[in-house]
Amino acid sequence: MTTPTPARTELIALLRERSFRRGTFTLASGRRSSYYVDARLTTMSAHGLSLVGTLGLEAIRTAGWTPSLVGGLTLGADPVAYAIAAASDRAPPTIDGFTVRKEAKAHGTGRRLEGPFRSGATVVVVEDVITTGGSALAAITAVTEAGGQVVGVLAVVDREEGGRQAIEAAGYPVIALVRLPDLSGD
Question: Other C-beta atoms within 10 Å of 107: how many?
Fold first, then answer.
């Protein structure tokens, strides 16, 4: 998604202000980076939730995807999924949210997918930041093992470090609301 809309411009500004840092960082993948994007500082804020929900829902519909559910690996995907679900309630048809646990619960129902997920559901996997694609691919595996059909992946930020390509190589299209160069100015 590269169209400069007012909402996208606001999201970029909010991500720059709250989530983007320069320095020396070790990423979850173990890679070193001179940038860090803690998108949760944006996606968990009231205004960030509103922007991500609106833009995410618009991107899903523009892509022609018609999921019944959006969700991904906890914790980064949770606010993204719930923001899109809430936005869809204001602009039907609705899309419910769900969460993929890192591992199945050892008690209760023992579920790995929480919320209204059901076998046969059409799903968009969401992510806050894509770097290597590992979290999105783990969520895709959990969804497909539970009988869901993944139609695509939507990320708030694509760091452009190979994650998109890894997900697309696995057969899933990717949409990113913002790319790292939008934040870094590089």
Answer: 5
Q: For residue 95, give the 3-state DSSP assignment.
A: coil
CA 185/CA 87 separation, integer angstroms: 29
How many angstroms separate the CA atoms of 177 and 59, rounded? 8
Q: What is the pLDDT of residue 22?
A: 94
Q: pTM for the complete prediction?
A: 0.94
The type of residue at 29 is S
Element (H, E) at 154: strand 149-158
CA distance 142 to 161: 23
Q: Where are the alpha helices (DSSP H) in 19-162?
A: 40-43, 46-62, 77-90, 134-145
Domains and CATH numbers, the chain: 6-184 (3.40.50.2020)
Across 118-123, average pLDDT: 97
Helix (H/G/I), strand (E/B), else coil: 11: helix
Q: Are 69 and 84 in contact (CB under 8 A)?
A: no
Q: pLDDT per residue over 43-91, tens digit each?
A: 999 999 999 999 999 999 999 999 999 999 999 999 999 999 999 999 9
